[in-house]
Design goal:
Number of domains: 2
Order of helices and strands: EEHEHEHEEEEHHHEEEHEHEEH
Radius of gyration: 21 Å
Strand content: 25-35%
Helix content: 25-40%
Largest sheet: 8 strands, mixed
Strand order of the largest sheet: 7-8-9-10-11-12-14-13
Length: 307
C-alpha cells in the first residue's frame, strides 16, 4: 500500500500555500495514491486552518492528470471550499447527484418532489476528523445488529425527554422497520472509531411533514438525531459528528443547498452548541405534537467557515 507523503509544503510560502507534489505519472494510475493524496491534503488543510487555498506545483502533465480528481482552478490553485465539496473517499455509495430529476407525487405526500434514489447499504460516510482526532462514520441501521441498543437508547430518560418514544422492543422494531421502508428517510448509526454512539435520520424535506412550515426547496435535507452513549457527549464529539453528517448530506447531492432541523423549542443546549457548526435558528412554530424551532445550515456558510 502506498503510504509515503505525497507532497511537501514549500517553506516560507504564504497564502496561497505552495505545495510541491512528489508524485510521478505512474503513481496517478494507482487509486491508493490518489486516496493518500486526498488524505494528505485533508490533513494539511486541517492544520492550516486560516489557509483558504493551496497552489499545487508539479509538471503540466501531472497537474493535467490531477485535474481529473481534484477541482483545480486557474494556476493549479485548490480552494479549501471546493476540495471539501468533493465526494472523494469520504462518501461511500453512489452520490445522489447522479440520480436524474423526475417529479413525482407519492401517496399521502405533501407536494410534488423529485424521485429519490434507492436506499444505500452499509457505510455511507467515513472520515478521520483531524480537529477531534477521531474517525467518524455513519452506516445504515441494521435490525439484527442495532435494534437492542436502539431500544436502550430510546428508553434512556435523557433521550426520551425529547424523542418521547420510550417504547417496547416490538414497537421500536416496527418503528425502525418503517424507517428502512420509507424512501425519503435514511436511518443511520453513527460511530466513533467503530463504536456506535447515536442514531440519525437523514431525510428529504419535500416529502416530510416539515415541508408545509417553510419555503422548502426540492433538495433540502433534514436531520433527526440523538446521542445514546454518555461517553460520547460534549462539544468535542458533538462538533465532530454534526459536522460529519452535514458534510455527508452536502456531498451526497450538489443540488442540496440547505440542511434543516426541527428540534423542540426548549432544547437550549442544542441551540447553543449547533451554532459552532454553522446552523442558525430562524423561527419557532407549532407542530401538532410539539413546539419546534427551525434551524438551518446553508452550503456556502458550511464549506467556507467550518474547515
Amino acid at each position: 500500500m502506498f503510504n509515503a507523503k505525497t507532497f511537501q509544503v514549500v517553506e516560507g510560502s504564504e497564502n496561497p500555500l505552495r505545495v510541491q507534489l512528489t508524485l510521478s505519472k505512474s503513481d496517478l494510475v494507482n487509486p491508493q495514491v490518489i486516496e493518500q493524496l486526498i488524505a494528505d491534503l485533508d490533513g494539511e488543510f486541517s492544520q492550516q486552518f486560516d489557509c483558504q487555498c493551496f497552489q499545487l506545483e508539479a509538471s503540466e502533465l501531472i497537474l493535467a492528470e490531477l485535474a481529473k480528481w481534484l477541482p483545480l482552478c486557474e494556476g493549479a490553485v485548490l480552494y479549501k471550499a471546493l476540495f471539501y465539496q468533493m465526494p472523494a473517499q469520504w462518501h461511500r455509495h453512489t452520490v445522489s447527484s447522479r440520480f436524474p430529476l423526475i417529479e413525482v407525487q407519492s401517496n399521502n405526500q405533501y407536494r410534488h418532489h423529485p424521485m429519490r434514489p434507492a436506499m444505500p447499504t452499509g457505510t455511507v460516510y467515513q472520515r478521520f476528523d483531524h480537529q477531534a482526532d477521531l474517525e467518524v462514520s455513519f452506516r445504515v441501521f441494521d435490525m439484527e445488529r442495532d435494534l437492542d441498543r436502539f431500544v436502550r437508547w430510546m428508553n434512556d430518560p435523557r433521550v426520551a425527554h425529547f424523542w418521547e418514544q420510550a417504547w417496547s422492543k416490538d414497537d421500536l422494531a416496527e418503528f425502525a422497520q418503517s424507517r428502512l421502508n420509507d424512501p425519503h428517510i435514511i436511518p443511520l448509526i453513527g460511530e466513533f472509531n467503530g463504536e456506535a454512539f447515536g442514531y440519525v435520520e437523514a431525510y428529504w424535506v419535500s416529502e416530510d411533514r416539515l415541508s408545509p412550515y417553510y419555503d422548502v426547496q426540492s433538495y433540502d435535507r433534514g436531520i433527526h438525531l440523538l446521542v445514546g452513549e454518555d461517553q460520547f457527549r460534549g462539544p468535542r464529539y458533538f462538533n465532530c459528528w454534526m459536522r460529519a453528517i452535514s458534510h455527508y448530506l452536502f456531498i451526497d447531492d450538489v443540488r442540496t443547498t440547505r440542511i434543516v432541523l426541527e428540534p423542540r423549542s426548549d432544547n437550549k443546549r442544542l441551540f447553543n452548541r449547533i451554532k459552532e457548526v454553522g446552523y442558525q435558528k430562524l423561527f419557532e412554530f407549532n407542530f401538532p405534537h410539539k413546539r419546534s424551532a427551525l434551524l438551518m445550515l446553508e452550503r456556502g456558510a458550511f464549506f467556507e467557515e467550518q474547515w
